[in-house]
Hints:
The chain is of the alpha/beta class. The protein has a single domain (2-172, 268-377), classed as 3-Layer(bba) Sandwich (FAD/NAD(P)-binding domain), CATH 3.50.50. Helices cover 35% and strands 25% of the residues. The strands form four sheets. The chain has a seven-stranded mixed β-sheet with strand order 5-4-13-14-15-12-16. Strands 7-2-1-11-18-17 form a six-stranded mixed β-sheet. It has a three-stranded antiparallel β-sheet with strand order 8-9-10. A hairpin with a 5-residue loop joins strand 4 and strand 5 (82-84). Bound molecules: flavin-adenine dinucleotide (FAD). Flavin-adenine dinucleotide (FAD) binds next to helix 1, strand 2, strand 3, strand 16 and helix 8.
Amino acid sequence: MRILVVGSGIAGQTLACALAKRGIACDVVEVKPAFDIAGAGLYVQGPALRAFQDIGVVEAIVAAGLPLADDTSLVTDSAGMPMARPSYPRIAGPHIPSVVPIRRRALHEILARAVEAAGVAVRMGVTVDALAQAPDGVTATFSDGRVDRYDLVVGADGIRSRVRALLFPAAQPQYTGYANWRVILPTPAGLERTTWMMGTGTSFGIVPIAPGLVYIAGVSKEPGNPRFERAELPALCRSRFAEFGGFAPALLAQVTAPDQVVYTPIEEVRLAPPWHKGRVVLVGDAAHAGTPFWAMGATMAIEDAVLLATLLARGTPIEAVLPDWMARRLPRCRFVQDGSLQTGRRSHEESPEALAAREHYVRNLMVADVARRYATLAEPFVW
Ligand SMILES: Cc1cc2nc3c(=O)[nH]c(=O)nc-3n(C[C@H](O)[C@H](O)[C@H](O)COP(=O)(O)OP(=O)(O)OC[C@H]3O[C@@H](n4cnc5c(N)ncnc54)[C@H](O)[C@@H]3O)c2cc1C
């Protein structure tokens, strides 16, 4: 069996390693000529760590990131007064932390090393221009002029997937009305744990990702999806989150340079099933990009990849593997997409009634709700 993986991001790198481990040959192409990893930090959650055990990168991730202190986070009001302290179960095993926030670049480097160690070559600066399907294979025409034939093509090429555009041209990312502002900064003295602050129409997270480093992750509503000049970003970031107290003012005061700020309009991809056509399948954000309010998109991408490699290695014909894989992934990915969006809406309420209902929820119901969510996520993803 020969497989083409399009995209060497979180899903593509995980899939390449998981296939190689099972003795399945794959080629990987990546459109970027060199990696410039945008974004600040990423929550690597328990189910992601469990799936990552398959490719042997968990130790390196725990060493490079900063696990949540006591497996808990703190939720506060906009002044920084504590409201709730949800805890997260150790889904990957008793000795593996519940959640490991990490710099995106560090995660990428760990996965890139794993791909190299697995003996998989990544052709950089290359994409697919065309895919011609036949009953027994797919002929891929690459942007560097090469033509090659594969048993299966996997689109792991992210939210603006070219493979999805070739398969399902009508499916487009939808803007959700929210935007995310991220900056890496020195850890403020006295910060004990990851803190999520609730404002009026905004939220502000402070997440330790390495000794001495945090990333701040603010969310604001940005009607109409405005485009900002890079030079405007620091002042806009400071003003969007000016209502927050606690550690926020001192952190925001350090946001002064345009290159510090990663501004991301939040979009979703809700591709109607099936996420495959013939012998081409979409995984990760290409099929089901979600909002970041549960910080679970990468988790779903990693699980997609490990499950797909596992099913392919069972020797079932590819035509039967793809619907089987899809039936297992769809409910779980939709659970995360729907739940994350609902959390996002609740976290960014503005009317006095909605804010009162949110306060009741956070103070009285949130801890049990988070525990229920993780009980569902702890269910096996491979069976
Ligand atoms: C603000 C924000 C915060 C987030 N925080 C978290 C978090 O804390 N935890 C979490 O689990 N998830 C988080 N996510 C979601 C997470 O980033 C994504 O779900 C995850 O990166 C998806 O992985 P992927 O491999 O599918 O796509 P990507 O990581 O986007 O990788 C796609 C790869 O394909 C390449 N590519 C693109 N087009 C082509 C092409 N035509 N040909 C070849 N290659 C191509 C890209 O260059 C890239 O390398 C967050 C998302 C956002 C927007």
